[in-house]
Write a structure and sequence with these properties.
It is a single chain. With 215 residues, the protein is α/β, with parallel strands linked by helices. It contains seven helices and eight strands; from the N terminus they run E-H-E-H-E-E-E-H-E-H-E-H-E-H-H. Strand 4 and strand 5 form a beta hairpin. The two termini are 29 Å apart.
Length: 215
């Protein structure tokens, strides 16, 4: 990993990475923030996320951007519901652990952007496949509160291209008591989509707050 996360420069944009077209549509169709925010669709899975983020941060792209991974996830903790928000304190996968930047700032910004949504904080773990049944319980036993396929790879790749703020915010679409068969065909998928539509201004607020001078 290339050093600890550092502050973004005042001109640095925010790169929000998501895997799926439906996630990109949700993020882009909500209220747009005033600042420079790019929503990047990476494709599904950790290898696709690595390649897309590396290309986006290369010279000629947005090499100085802060990076935030977003989209849907599977909740691991009992009592989670579709539409709940997960703010990662760190991301984990087989390649290591990446601490996230400004978790408290994100939680506060999300409370304003999506009032009424439940926000969970804790470790977000990565997988290279969709997690179901007993495997969900095994991941929960590690202390993780949610799982997705791209966040860990996205943040690790971002830091390999230089120090920068990184974070991950996911919306629960699938939970232990609410397993989803197909996104968008049941109420849980619709609830998650609506919450994801609301969060982009909170991401911009997080990014802007990191640029303010510390007292």
């Amino acid at each position: 990993m290339a050093g600890a996360p550092g502050p973004a420069s005042p001109q640095a944009p925010l790169l929000v990475a998501c895997a799926l077209g439906i996630e990109q549509v949700a993020l882009r169709s909500g209220r747009r923030p005033a600042g420079p925010v790019r929503v990047l669709r990476t494709g599904m899975g950790p290898r696709a996320a690595e390649a897309a983020v590396a290309a986006a941060l290369a010279p000629g792209g947005t090499p100085g951007a802060a990076v935030l991974a977003s989209g849907f996830c599977a909740g691991l903790a009992p009592g989670m519901h579709p539409g709940d928000l997960v703010v990662a304190e760190e991301t984990r996968d087989a390649d290591g652990v990446t601490p996230c930047t400004g978790t408290g700032l994100l939680v506060a910004a999300l409370a304003r952007a999506a009032p009424g949504a439940t926000v969970h904080t804790g470790p977000l773990t990565g997988s290279d496949h969709v997690v179901r049944g007993p495997e969900r319980a095994a991941l929960r036993a590690t202390g993780a509160i949610a799982v997705d396929m791209e966040s860990a790879a996205t943040l690790r790749t971002a830091l390999c291209h230089g120090p920068r703020p990184v974070a991950a915010v996911r919306v629960v679409v699938d939970a232990p008591e609410h397993e989803l068969v197909r996104i968008g065909t049941v109420r849980g998928g619709i609830s998650a989509f609506r919450v994801l539509r609301a969060v982009l201004p909170a991401f911009y607020e997080w990014h802007r707050s990191l640029l303010l001078p510390r007292r």
